[in-house]
Amino acid sequence: MSTTDFQQWMAGIQQRTEVALAANLPACDIAPTRLHEAMRYAVLGGGKRVRPLLVHAAGELAGAAPETLDSVACAVELIHAYSLVHDDMPCMDDDVLRRGKPTVHVEFDEATALLTGDALQTQAFQILSDTAFLDDPSRQLRMVELLARASGSRGMAGGQAIDLASVGKEITREELEFMHIHKTGALIRASVLLGAYCGNQVTPMLDSLDRYGKLIGLLFQVVDDILDARSDTATLGKTAGKDADQHKPTYVSLLGEPRARELADDLLAQALRVLEPLDGSALRLRELATFIVHRRY
Amino acid sequence: MSTTDFQQWMAGIQQRTEVALAANLPACDIAPTRLHEAMRYAVLGGGKRVRPLLVHAAGELAGAAPETLDSVACAVELIHAYSLVHDDMPCMDDDVLRRGKPTVHVEFDEATALLTGDALQTQAFQILSDTAFLDDPSRQLRMVELLARASGSRGMAGGQAIDLASVGKEITREELEFMHIHKTGALIRASVLLGAYCGNQVTPMLDSLDRYGKLIGLLFQVVDDILDARSDTATLGKTAGKDADQHKPTYVSLLGEPRARELADDLLAQALRVLEPLDGSALRLRELATFIVHRRY
Q1: Which residues of chain A have pLDDT under 50?
Q2: Between B36, B115, B121, which is nearest A118 by CB?
Q3: CA atoms of A204 and B55, how far apart (whole Å)
Q4: Measured between beta carbons, which residues in chain A are less than 8 angstroms from residue B130?
Q5: What is the rounded CA–CA span in Å between residue A223 and residue A203?
Q6: Which chain A residue has its CA at the smallest distance from B34's CA?
């Protein structure tokens, strides 16, 4: 299959995700207008939409309808967006640039950024619990629980806490991996599983998809560390070199860049291998894994 | 029914809520330990537990099992607790005292307070979507959605945003009411409805309970404004007189204290009236309404 075909598929999902997000966020003319403006600012018009792409790729494989997947894609992307808004705040990473634009607390103010993150998280759960999108309340409830577990103190938010505690410290590779499995990995893994849950052919492939999701989550972070060390701010759309400036342990600081790249190649090979038994070898998931390694921002 | 009986009932619910909250929060020895310690610090060992009391009162009336109501009580209390942690942060109300203890960002640090609030919100949705507690996934899913709508940008978080925007401004009584219906009212109303949803005799009383929930939400805030103006820090367990110091519009600043008290009496009378058609005249809900008016903190 050609690269062009993947590019078109990806652009199509990104576009429909943008439309779905715009429809799922309250309009700017609904009170409180400034909060709704900030929520839309934080979410719309940027981002690679890696998690929505994973939702759709896994969902297509499981035979789910694209409209159903749109809701799930919005929910995971809003969780991701909320975490970025809070992570950028002065008391956390104190960053001024995100997706090439001023961060929410810079463009609006700190209090608005705090409430924006809060309300985006709630909106994610509202979308996923909306009774309209899946005709199986029992499965849908399990999906809400899965998203909550992936996002909370033993998932993404917990990973952020470990990240904070590790600044300026020497940590082992095991500790670094533990942090990333939570901070980035949990939501990426959940994206794959939630997409698959929307289809009817999910059960036989769940184990493979779960292993794929875990590998791809770690892979994403290893590549992120390499990009942060190597790339420039204009390309990334966020401040480059921050990890080193803040003395954050990364795969690059721990292993050196050549070995971090080897690790990325190895994780990619493992991820492709777990997909082999799947239908059509799970084309889009294969392509996405490769995309995650070769992305430039 | 005697006051003593109500006091005993209330103490019983508060106690079982404390036990349920302790069981529903991750233990301090689970990583990330500092985050879990902060989550428990923010939630346990304090608070009037007004929302859990409303959950149980409405739930008892609808014939729900106390164990089922415990889960719902925890979910609403965690949403309330998360909002307090974030509301106390320097970029919001900048308060150092809550429930007689240093606020989370004072006792820990700002970043931990931010993540604590985030993770408490997630935990609320995790508890409410746990498939173990209600044998009716369709109803449970509606409950998750109801909690999300009550908490988000068109509910509690939206009310906080309106509150922020109103500091130092002249606002009308209608605007003040609009703010409070969102900021405090939405979650209090949701507590009543969520409790009732756990029972099997809910449908005929839903309209009355909804009206009661709305009235009691507003009543709670009017009394809060009077207490903030009248009481002292030691009694309240949080900094008294902050509204006036921060030039926040309140029912006292807008109407004066005597008319604010009249309004509270009037709202109480209305709340008791809407309960009249209900079974046993909804004893606990009546008592709770009276308690909310006569509380000292």
Answers
A1: 1
A2: B121
A3: 41
A4: 145
A5: 30
A6: A161
Query: In sequence order, what are the residues at sequence separation of 6 or more whose Cβ sits closer than 8 angstroms to the Cβ of residue B110?
Result: A91, B89, B90
Nearest to A32, CA basis, from B164, B112, B227, B140: B164
pLDDT of A125 reads 98
Q: Could you give the CA distance from residue A55 to residue B218 in angstroms, rounded to a whole number?
A: 42
State how far the Cα of B187 lies from the Cα of B158, in Å rounded to an integer.
12
Cα–Cα distance, B38 to B35 (Å, whole number) = 5
Sequential pLDDT tens for chain B (297 residues): 467 899 999 999 999 999 999 999 999 999 999 999 999 999 999 889 999 999 999 999 999 999 999 999 999 999 999 999 999 999 999 999 998 899 999 999 999 999 999 999 999 999 999 977 888 999 999 999 999 999 999 999 999 999 998 888 888 888 899 999 999 999 999 999 999 999 987 777 899 999 999 999 999 999 999 998 887 777 777 777 777 777 788 899 899 999 999 999 999 999 999 999 987 779 999 999 999 998 877
Sign of CA dihedral A132, A133, A137, A143: negative
pTM for the full model? 0.95
The residue extents of the domains of chain A are 3-294
What tokens were used for A42?
């934080």
Give the span between the Cα atoms of B227 and B235, in whole angstroms: 10
Report d(CA B15, CA B66) in Å as an integer.
13
- Residue B209, amino acid: L
Q: Please give the CATH number for the structural domain made up of A3-294.
A: 1.10.600.10
Contact assignment for A130 to B145 by CB distance below 8 Å: yes
Neighboring chain A residues of B151 at a CB cutoff of 8 Å: 122
Q: How far is A232 from chain B (nearest CA, A)?
A: 27
Total beta-carbon pairs less than 8 A apart between chain A and chain B: 162
Per the CB < 8 A criterion, the answer to whether A35 and B161 are in contact is yes
Sign of CA dihedral A259, A262, A266, A267: positive
Task: Please tell me the distance in Å from A164's CA to the nearest CA on chain B.
Answer: 8
Interface test with B, best of A74, A103, A114, A166 (most B CBs within 10 A): A114
Contact B122 A157 (CB under 8 A): yes
